[in-house]
Structure formats: C-alpha cells, structure tokens
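Technical note accompanying the year-one report. For the benefit of new consortium partners, we illustrate the data format agreed upon in the data management plan: each record pairs a sequence with a structure-token string. No post-processing was applied to the example shown here.
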Amino acid sequence: MIDKREIMDFSREFGLNANVIEKDYVIGWVLSVVSSHPEIGSSWVFKGGTCLKKCYFETYRFSEDLDFTLTNPDHLNQEFLTNAFNEISEWTYEKAGIELPTETIRFEVYENPRGSNSAQGRIGYRGPMQKRGDLPRIKLDLTVDEVLVLNPVLREVHHPYSDRPDEGIHVQCYSFEEVFAQKIRALAERERPRDLYDVVHLYRHDELKPDQSLILGTLEKKCEFKEMPVPTMETFRNRPERGELESEWVNMLAHQLPALPSFEQFWKELPEVMEWLHGAVQKAVKEPIPLGRTAIHETWRPPSMAQAWHTAVPLEKIRFAAANRLCVKLYYKDSHRLIEPYSLRRSREGNLLLYAIRHNTGEIRAYRVDRFQGAEVTDSPFVPKHAIELTPSGPISAPGITRRSGGFSSS
C-alpha cells in the first residue's frame, strides 16, 4: 500500500480532497482482485462512470461507485456475493495491504422497477489515510437484466500510483460504443447531471473517431429492450426534468471535479451531439496547434495515465481544463494571462512546453512549464480552434475506432 504522502501529492495535483483520491486508489485494487477472481472475473462486465474514469479517460470526473452487468444470473445471490467478497477482502489485503473489513461487507438483492432482480452492495475500507471510526465505503450496483449488444473488451485500469503491478491491472468492461450508447439512453431515461456531463464529454474527445452508426445501432437495441423510443434532441427539450437537471448540476458534480464547468456550456453542446448521432452532421476534425520553430521531441507525448508531476504548478489540473474546454488563468513572468490549453510537448533540450492560445487575442504561445508561477482553472469556456492533445486516452479496443496523431518559440 502506498503512503499518505502519495495520496496528498495526487490531491494537490488534481485539486481534489484527499479522501476522493484515496477512494480512487482503493477502487483500482478492488478491480484488480475482482478481475482475477476465478468465478466472477470472466462473467462480470464493468460499466458506468467509474469505468469511464478508470478504463478510458483519466481526465474524466472522479466517480465513486462500481457498476457491473453480471452475465451469470446465479451470482445475484446474497450468500454468494458475501462469500466472494470475503475472499476479495483477504486477497486485497495480501496484495496491497488495504483492509476491507468483512463486517462492513453488505449486499441486498431486491426486485428492480423492471421486475427483475438487482443487487446493491457496500464495502468499507481502510486505506493510506488510515481513517478510524466509521470507514468510507464503496458502493456496488449489480444487474443481470441489462442487454449487452457488443462484446465486452479487456481494458487496462488507470492506476497511476507507485504500487501499480508490473503487468498492470486489466478488467473486462463495456466497449466504448456500448458505454456511449448506454449513457445516451440513461440521459433520456432520468436526465441526471452526470449523464449530461458524460455524454458531452465522450463526444468531445477529438483523438477518438468512434463509429457513429455502431453507437446508434447499439442505442436502438438498448431502447428496444427498455421499450422506449430512441432519443433525439426533442426528447430533452421542454421536459420538466430540465429544470431539475440544471438545479442539481452543482450538488451532483462539484465534488467530483477540480473545477465545475457551467451547465449551459454542456446543455448548449448537446444538440450537436444528437445531430451527429443521427447522422445529420459530421464531426469536424481539427488540426493540431502549430509548434513553430522550437525543436520538439517528435515522439514524446504526455502519458494517458495521470501522474504527480512534482512541478511548481499542478499539470493535471491544466489537462483537466483542456478536456473540459475551460480557460486557465496562468501566472507567468510576473503577470497573468487567460489561456486556452491545447498541447503539452517536450523540447529536444528537455523542457516541458505548454502550447496554448491567448484567449483575449487569439495568439498562439508556448510556455515553459518550469517557469509557471501559478495556474487556476476558471469557469470561462472556450471553443477549441485546434485539436486538444493534452488528454490522450490510450488505444480503444472496440470496433471501428482509430487514433490520429496529433509555428512558435517558447515564451
């Protein structure tokens, strides 16, 4: 198990409470042990917001629950689940030194609104923060009546901490197209803030070229299974839930993000997402920001997995700002400037350079990271003029997806 200091380093890097980071760390190890369990590892399929965070987008919002679709209905049994997680508790302690006290393991099997059984579980843990008294808990949601349209894929779990196993952590999860379709359907069903955030965030990742027709076809089958119409933008307009969606935006999301983008920023982008989904518009492909005359290390790119950079100014907060299309107030050479962050590169001399656009003037600039004096993520949105290269997601193991590769002297 890592020490408290490493948790605090990541807390500073992300600008989030240390307890949020600790839970993210513990979730990584729980996923490791679940995926290696001889009975459930091959029949539980990871999904939901935490799947997006841990398996696809490190700059995504932090999530707190573990959601699985169970392909073996026999596993949806209170005794089986309790016994399995008693084993998982023992193995997690052996592998990582993280305590999952067996007396905190609770599962309840219940009849869901669809008339089928689901289960909800809670697991207490004692991690690097060594909290005493009432332990923090991880919530599990388990279903067996979710239609799996596409084959699951094996994805590496983002576990950026120093005790990451040499072979990494891998878990069976929803393919990118399936999780995208699932999120659109969830937004149409319940209109929760996190679903709106997720749908727009998935669409924004310019480094991916998801198969739009495959997403739509998957969505159609999921809606047919739920006996609901395939959503369009008209589904979301003029519904009473729209007001609740806006009013709950801060309460539901603020604690999961270093800075909260405005509701309007995401709501205004939703029509473009839905038009693209239904084939009415093509997603524009933006060119990388020009790099100018500075000699750049051509093959270096920022890692897809977050890390504590140990720089004077936390770089992960800037990567988050780029992913969420938020301007950064940069303090540099004893003055402030509002910038749109686009790309992090390394010069042949070894300097990290942040390529950005001055928000007020449109000028392209390259800023040496070692000369940063301060940086603050603002709530001022920007519309990207170039490809956002600060947030690589790693290869996507799903059909029909390819990656594309991603002038000015440094200031």
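Partners are asked to follow this layout when depositing records. Residues 50 and 295 are 39 Å apart (CA to CA).
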